[in-house]
Sequence to fold (70 residues):
Amino acid sequence: MSEAERKYIKQVDDEILRASGESLQKLQEIDKSTQLNGHSFYDEYACALKKTPEEKLVTKTKTSDNKNHY
Fold:
């Protein structure tokens, strides 16, 4: 695995850990889909971002004080 791939995976993992609300639901839908079709979660996540470039997939994230920010 290349350094770029490791960096991408870490970035996605960090976004998942901070996700809440609607963005967490979208991530769960991607996860369920990958489990059913056997594709990589990270590949499906990248495809989802390409389909909606004007809106970030993970828009709301949790902060340390449990308040949401954009």
